[in-house]
Amino acid sequence: MIVDPAAAARIEAAYDEAQLKTRAPIMCVLTSASISRDAEFLLGACILALATPLPLLLFTDLSAQRIYIAQLLVAILAGVIGSVPWVRRLIVPKRAQRSAGHRAALAQFVVRGLDRSQCGVLVYVSLAEHYIRIVPAEDAAKAVAQEQWQSAVDDALPPLSAGETEAALTGLADRCADLLAKPFPPGAPAEPPQRQRFHQI
C-alpha cells in the first residue's frame, strides 16, 4: 500500500463525492513509480565493481585480498546509492521520466476501461517522479481545453512534492469534477458505475 488504508478510504470517498457532480467517469491511479530501472542500476553497479580492480592494480600496491574487498564495497555502495529514490531522479533524465509516466498513464487508461468511455477521465499520479497526468476520453478532451487540465495538474504538484499526497489527490478529484460538470452534468451515467475509483499499483 502506498497510502495507509484510512487515507485510501478518504481519497476513495472524495472521488465518490466528485462523481456526484458529473456523469463522466472519474478514476485515479496512484503508483510509487512509473519506471523501475532496477535492472539498469544493478547493471551499472556491476560494471562499476568490475572496473574497480584495474586502477588499483595499476596505481597501488594493494594485495589481491584488499582489492577484492574494495570491489565488493564498490558494488554494495553503488547498489545502495542507486536504490535511493532522489538519486534515481537525479540520474534518470527528466525527459525519460516524463515519457515513462506518459506511457504508464495511457496504459492505465486502457486497463481501467476508460478507453471505452466517451467522456471519462483518468488521473494518474506517480510519486517517485512527482508526475501527474490527466488523461481525458475523446469527448472530455473536446469539451475541456488542455490548458484547464494542465492548470489542475499545476495546482496539485506543490502539495504532492511536499508529501501531501492525500491533499493532492482529493484536490484533483474536485477540479476534474468541476471541469466535467458543465459539459457532462449528472444524470444517467455514460458507463456502468465503477466499484472502485481509486487504485494503488
Plain-language structure description:
This protein is α/β, with parallel strands linked by helices and 201 residues long. It folds into two domains: 5-35 and 93-200, Diaminopimelate Epimerase, Chain A, domain 1; 38-91, no CATH class. The chain is 59% helix and 10% strand. The protein has helices at residues 5-19, 38-51, 53-59, 64-82, 85-91, 94-111, 138-143, 146-161, 165-181, and strands at 26-31, 121-126, 131-136, 198-200. The protein has a four-stranded mixed beta sheet, sandwiched between helices. The longest helix is centred in the middle third of the chain and has 19 residues, at 64-82. The radius of gyration is 22 Å and the shape is elongated.
Keyphrases for this structure?
201 residues; alpha/beta; Diaminopimelate Epimerase, Chain A, domain 1; 2 domains; four-stranded mixed sheet; 9 helices; elongated
Topology:
Layout: H1 5-19, E1 26-31, H2 38-51, H3 53-59, H4 64-82, H5 85-91, H6 94-111, E2 121-126, E3 131-136, H7 138-143, H8 146-161, H9 165-181, E4 198-200
Parallel strand pairs: 1-2, 1-4
Antiparallel strand pairs: 2-3
Write a short abstract of this structure.
This protein is an alpha/beta fold and 201 residues long. 59% of the residues lie in helices and 10% in strands.
Distance between the termini: 8 Å
- Give the topology string: H per helix, E per strand: HEHHHHHEEHHHE
Mean pLDDT: 89
Q: What name does the CATH topology of the largest domain carry?
A: Diaminopimelate Epimerase, Chain A, domain 1
Silhouette: elongated
Q: What is the domain tally? A: 2
Number of helices: 9
Strand order of the largest sheet: 3-2-1-4
Helix content: 55-70%
Judged by helices, strands and strand pairing, the structural class is: alpha/beta
Residue ranges: pLDDT <50 for 5 or more in a row?
none
Radius of gyration (Å): 22 Å
CATH architecture heading of the largest domain: Roll
Which percent band covers the strand fraction? 5-15%
Please report the first level of CATH classification, the CATH class of the largest domain.
Alpha Beta
Total strands: 4
Q: Could you describe the largest sheet, including whether it forms a barrel?
A: 4 strands, mixed
